[in-house]
Amino acid sequence: MSVVLAGNSYGKSKVRLTKVSRKPDRHELAEWDVAIQLQGDFAPAYIMGDNRQVIATDTMKNTVYALAADLELTSPEAFARTLGAHFLSRYLQVESLDVEIRSARWQRVDVSGEPSPHAFIGGGPEERVGLLSQSRERLSLQGGLDRLLILKTADSAWRDFHRDEFRALPDVDDRILATELTANWRYSEGAIDHDAVFAAIRQTLIETFAGHKSLGAQHTLHAMGAAVLEQCSAIDEIELIMPNRHRIPFDLRPFQRENRNEIFIATDEPHGLISGILRRSSAPHE
Amino acid sequence: MSVVLAGNSYGKSKVRLTKVSRKPDRHELAEWDVAIQLQGDFAPAYIMGDNRQVIATDTMKNTVYALAADLELTSPEAFARTLGAHFLSRYLQVESLDVEIRSARWQRVDVSGEPSPHAFIGGGPEERVGLLSQSRERLSLQGGLDRLLILKTADSAWRDFHRDEFRALPDVDDRILATELTANWRYSEGAIDHDAVFAAIRQTLIETFAGHKSLGAQHTLHAMGAAVLEQCSAIDEIELIMPNRHRIPFDLRPFQRENRNEIFIATDEPHGLISGILRRSSAPHE
Amino acid sequence: MSVVLAGNSYGKSKVRLTKVSRKPDRHELAEWDVAIQLQGDFAPAYIMGDNRQVIATDTMKNTVYALAADLELTSPEAFARTLGAHFLSRYLQVESLDVEIRSARWQRVDVSGEPSPHAFIGGGPEERVGLLSQSRERLSLQGGLDRLLILKTADSAWRDFHRDEFRALPDVDDRILATELTANWRYSEGAIDHDAVFAAIRQTLIETFAGHKSLGAQHTLHAMGAAVLEQCSAIDEIELIMPNRHRIPFDLRPFQRENRNEIFIATDEPHGLISGILRRSSAPHE
Amino acid sequence: MSVVLAGNSYGKSKVRLTKVSRKPDRHELAEWDVAIQLQGDFAPAYIMGDNRQVIATDTMKNTVYALAADLELTSPEAFARTLGAHFLSRYLQVESLDVEIRSARWQRVDVSGEPSPHAFIGGGPEERVGLLSQSRERLSLQGGLDRLLILKTADSAWRDFHRDEFRALPDVDDRILATELTANWRYSEGAIDHDAVFAAIRQTLIETFAGHKSLGAQHTLHAMGAAVLEQCSAIDEIELIMPNRHRIPFDLRPFQRENRNEIFIATDEPHGLISGILRRSSAPHE
After folding, report:
1. Which residues of B touch A62 (CB under 8 A)?
2. Measured between alpha carbons, how far is B247 from B148 in angstroms, rounded to an integer?
3. Could you tell me which residue, A272 or D286, shows the higher pLDDT?
4. Given an 8 Å threshold on Cβ–Cβ distance, is D69 in contact with C252?
5. Do A168 and D256 touch (CB under 8 A)?
6. Most buried residue among B139, C15, C51, D131 by CB atoms closer than 10 A?
7. Smallest Cβ distance to C63: which of A48, A59, A166?
């Protein structure tokens, strides 16, 4: 028998980078988690422990901090491209790589109604994400956001779904819809202001969620993705992942009370998990 | 040998209550985690399994949902008092109890610049807290907040601390100060608008943190607590707990670069943990 | 412009199933997390809120519990196949599905040296995993384990890796190697005793890790995968994912002490992340 | 108005210490989380930023590693005492301190049926705990364990508890009892082998849980605590905290099936939380 190394990848995860850019009138703060994975000519390290081609994951970490010192950090997408170019150009043994950058949502504190030049408040679990997948032949750049909690208490029905012996849920016209949204989008060709696109997509996702007359999580997911594609020409594909964080009506009847659609149990599990990929179609016949 | 049951307490934790109050022009949303602990005449259940006096923890949970349906939810503090009165008045076997209510920070979504009547965005890990400890003789009511992330990039020194063989840290005049703040306060006697007091304390804590010329986390903690006591007559004691979420300068010298106080490693552990209790002193000689 | 729904999938996650099988002499305990994702003819629900083809995720949950009641639970793999066959045969609108079952590692308690018939102790974060991906044309069944913590204090070197300006790590001949192992394997054709194969693979992974003269995490990963393929003819491919949970020597020199390779800082982040896929090669020329 | 600093404490948490003791025939592994809190003459640091008396939390961390290098680590309790003596004797400004040491449950790997000299497998979330609270006048030393998951499928009833309008639970004679146990005990005076006492208490807790004819979680908690006090003369008080990790029978009747007490939903929340303190009574009249 013989054994083949059919795939390999290695890198550094959770490189926690903080950069303070000390502008004359204010400080800019970036707090990013950086992860890098390299693929390439590393089989000798796996097969026989020959590490001469291996860039240590500690070296990758050092590179992140050093390049962050050298350059202005504009967007996660731009820094991911910087890292991609660095590793591919410097190390011939690297054939392809993945870079993931997650940016924490620090927001400037208001002091006496004015934004502070140097104090920030944490923005919750929500993260902005930049994803690069690059080889010597191709480059794919994605933006995204993760763990955006949104909830609506009106305009959400769930009815007329398939009925059989395992269905126990009744139709409902007015439920709570809550999710912890993940979105990833693929950029079109051309020059792009990633910060502006991110802000526009995030606001479109939130506003569409808020305003949609939902007939189901799938229905709202589609409306959100379609609205983004309609309003942001800078992207041509978006994936949305929406865990359905159910709020279940509490049955008050055993306690001689009526639940006027007001009292719910918040649950984390089990949870529905709804996803979809929407793509711009240039040809009317697709 | 004989064994004594020297203390006992039991109850229900993580009762996850969602209430939607459907006002004509908008919905109000409360999402609270409720925990109740009862102490009293329950030794027979422990010692011999005689459960006749025991209110099941499931019954406590049902009570939370039923009372939440009966009443308008104004503040965590008020609902904690409602629960306290209910359990003490209804069950003679209850001698004292603790109620803890943690409120998630949902914020109204802006749609086209206007607050949505029914859509909300999650406010991060930060929670508002109401704490009641009550017996048939006494009542202690506390408010608080937990997991408020704040960070400042200026006006924070840490120097001239004790020097001995185990000290390795240099003096530093300009570091990042970051914490995940917990605050608990005790209310004075009299009628109190808990929502207004909470908002005022939270803003005072944040603004004082932002504006303080810090000589250390202890120093800033004291300034924050003192500012709250000075500005909020409705409370007479406050405890602040400030884990020091260190941002450590990354040493770029091995890579032939200078760190101009810009590049840091964000860390969660180990972490400093600083706490203090400040109290209003009515007498000048205290 | 038009928008295309280029992909969709939905289902239920974290269905937490407990089954007690009450045998005459002992109880068997299974605690599984089940996740199901369906793909198929669900575009109308996304595009226009037409839910008639949609099997509610609550219905999926009910199905898990009902089928678990009907059948003896032998292995995660077997129950995943049962669920796959159920959804594909019953619902013509389902074109393909994924089932993931994670099994907690409860172990029987010893009482006076004998295994208890009905008491169990939790086995840590480690989970056994069964993965099914099935369509009307193909079926892929995988076994695996996740979050197996293993650590060795000897026979682990890390040296002679690529040297350049960003390398700061020295060569080291005797470090701690620690990981939280994830393994996934693909079964060969034919009848398979999944429980026996799981036990054999797990033990082979652990023993190979313990005994290997490691020249790097990659090297040990390869040895572990190769040992599994050599000893278990029931599988023909295995993927191993090994985060490198670094234990960093603490520098005692500032404190006038020598670290005789004894004192380390345990860290979770940043961490190396090493992965590889090994495959049985039937043909010498592959 | 004047403000008083009514209490203060500060220290370092999550000091993650790994020590490998390289014995001739085998390696011993300790992985401990150490937390230290100091109280004393630190008001000037709080009030005016005068840090001269403040031992930096980084210095505390260095001390942990340095003393761990100097000494053989026997038990968490013994090392907590070492740290307590160090800080109180070296720093006159320290009036009292708390030390908490949490020890991970690494277990030796079996290789070909023999325990490995140098390879270990993680033992789950369970931790052994040592707690010291010491001032210049008094010393309190506690041992404990945390997050021990135990579950039994027989000999557990829950019936005849208080009945009123908010009770919805039926009596049940045969339920699953599951908990994530926390135990803390106070040592008697005199020389104590902390490792042996820990092992005896842990086994007594598990065996009593397994064998008890439970009429409720309170009842089993008392039996467990009493058994420990009866069998371990080295301790004179024990506190047990038992969250009730409910396994709720799944109602199969809507699906034309009977649940023969076999199929349950595992839940984390809400959860009962039962605690009690048992103490040895030397005098029959106490």
Report:
1. 254-255
2. 17
3. A272
4. yes
5. no
6. C15
7. A166
d(CA C259, CA D40): 32
> Out of A166, A256, A269, whose CB is closest to D255?
A166
Q: Does B264 touch chain D (CB under 8 A)?
A: no
Question: DSSP of A101-168, one letter per residue?
Answer: EEEE--EEEEETTEEEEEEEE---S-EEEEEEEEESS-EEEEEEEEEEEEEESSSB-B-S---STT--
CA distance C193 to chain A (A): 22
Interface with chain C: mutation pick from B164, B250, B255, highest number of C CBs within 10 Å: B255
Written as six digits, the tokens of C97 are 């599905």
Is A12 among the residues known to form the active site?
yes
Distance separating alpha carbons of residues A242 and A178, to the nearest angstrom: 9
CB atoms within 10 A of CB A123: 16
Q: Kindly provide the residue ranges of all beta strands, DSSP E only, lying in chain B, ordered along the sequence.
A: 2-22, 27-40, 94-104, 107-111, 114-121, 127-135, 139-152, 177-187, 235-244, 247-249, 263-266, 271-281
SS3 D162: coil
Count CB atoms within 10 A of the CB of residue B25: 5
Number of Cα atoms under 13 Å in the Cβ half of residue A283: 2
Cα–Cα dist C246/C269, whole Å: 8
B186 is written with which tokens? 């005790």
d(CA A16, CA A14): 6
**What is the reported pLDDT for D165?**
96
Best of D90, D262, D269 to disrupt the C interface (most C CBs within 10 Å) is D262
Please tell me what DSSP assigns to residue A213.
Answer: -
Is the pLDDT score of D37 beyond 80? yes
Structure tokens at C286: 């592959």
- Is B182 among the residues known to form the active site? no
* pLDDT single digits (tens) B83-98: 999 999 999 999 999 9
Question: Phi and psi of B52, rounded to 5°?
Answer: -60, -30
Distance from CA of D235 to the nearest CA of C (A): 22
Instruction: Please check the confidence at residue B101 and state whether its pLDDT lies above 50.
Output: yes
Which of the other chains make 3 or more beta carbon contacts under 8 angstroms with chain B? A, C, D
| pLDDT at position A282 over 80 | no
CA distance B251 to D221: 53
> Which residue among B61, B194, B212, B246 is the active-site one?
B246
Cα distance between residue B154 and residue C16, in whole Å: 48
| C112–D207 CB contact, under 8 Å | yes
CB burial string D183-213: b at 16+ within 10 A, e below:
bbbbbeeeebebeebbebbbebbbbbbbbbe
Decide if D57 contacts D11 (C-beta within 8 A): yes
Kindly tell me if the per-residue pLDDT of A74 is higher than 70.
yes
The Cα–Cα gap between A1 and A44 comes to 20
- Cross-chain residue pair C264–D122, CB shorter than 8 Å: no
Q: D residues 133-152 near C, CB within 8 Å?
A: 148-152
The answer to whether residue C12 is catalytic is yes
